[in-house]
């Protein structure tokens, strides 16, 4: 296994990496003696506000509804190996549900700028799920990139 060092991305590099959406992994806390509830997730990202948007599916038999919701803490990570090496972004904060009644013009404008990929990972028709939208205005947002040195040929 290679020894890979990482360095902090600047805001422009981070925003370019995030684009307007993609996929990642979200973790939500549970009881103190239980591991976090962790799920693969699609996201939209608005570089103007720095907010992430998520479309989450809920079914009646899932435990997700009791763990994931409005005003719940979340940690989110997205990563990829790019032509310039490994990149990752970690965001954490409090999730806010985006309901029709609560949508203000700034949120509507931001949601038009993002693209949340629709990834079908369901074992049944997606119409059987209740989809809800959430926004994360991160308290913490860090991007890391693989360090480049002359000894690795700038790779």
From TrEMBL:
Pfam families: Pyridox_ox_2
Protein name: Flavin-nucleotide-binding protein-like protein
Cited SUPFAM superfamilies: FMN-binding split barrel
InterPro entries the UniProt entry points to: Pyridox_Oxase-rel (IPR024747), Split_barrel_FMN-bd (IPR012349)
Gene3D superfamilies found in the cross-reference section: Electron Transport, Fmn-binding Protein, Chain A
Domain of life: Archaea
Disordered: region residues: 1-37
